[in-house]
Amino acid sequence: MAKTIGIDLGTTNSCVSVIEGGRPVIIPNDKGARTTPSVVAFTKDGELIVGEAAQRQAAVNSQRTISSVKRSMGTNWNVNIVRVDEKKGDVYFMARREAVAKQALYKVDRKGGITALTDPQYHATNVKFSPDGKELAYLENRNILKVVNLETKKVRQITDGTQHYRNDDYCFDYEWSPDGKWFALSLITNMRDPYSDVGIVSANGDMKIHNITQSAYITSYVKWALDGNAITFISNRYGMRSHASWGSQDDAFIAFLNQEAYDKFRLSKEDYDLLKKEEKMAKDVAEKSDDKKDKKDKKDKKDEKKEKAKNEKQR
Hints:
alpha+beta, Nucleotidyltransferase, domain 5, Neuraminidase, 4 domains, four-stranded antiparallel beta sheet, 3 helices, 22 strands
């Protein structure tokens, strides 16, 4: 007579038993243990690892290790991995259930714990990590820019949505500044979609957009340049256009955010090379001055210790 096998698929551990003599008897695994960790992994060579062995190597092979899969059984998800933090073992991904149109951002840690970083009630798209990797920006409901702090999970609003009206997942261009303090973005003024401008807005959440171009032509591909001292973009402001139909020529533009960056950009190659030499000489002098100061400070501290020791010995 065929035996009936029962499997307890647990979130953390699993167990297998068989009925013998009318009573359930647990079947030990190949290590003699009565339970097996619910972890499966694949090595770089494609070898399958199960149980304790898979659990032990999870920290160094997080991308190929699967655990706590029971929590997702019975669900139907569309998942897009955003980033894998190999150092911490965290995986960031966008996901939505097929029955729900809204998409949210999640993090799964090396222990298998899943945390929602954005509110699943609102649609989140176009995510971008800050330069230091500590924060993550995203579009909520396609037209509001928000930032979530990955450590505190606190969310702050960057724009109010009144200057972005399109209804696609990439409603407008935006990019973190190199220092993580600003965003460069495209915006629509006076509801004149698709005609747009380029602006900057602080990452601290004051929601005040500073319009840089004020042209009301179509702009796109907004990018920071010159270490955050300028912004490049594409615009049809001066391009030839078809008056009988759609279409126009685009040109590349650069907007300088300060006079110094503009002046440097306009230097000839010879003058720029001379400026770099002068800056290097000034840096070398400053470093030598700092070295002398450090040596003097160390000598003063050493003399102070000797004097203190001498005074204590005389007592």
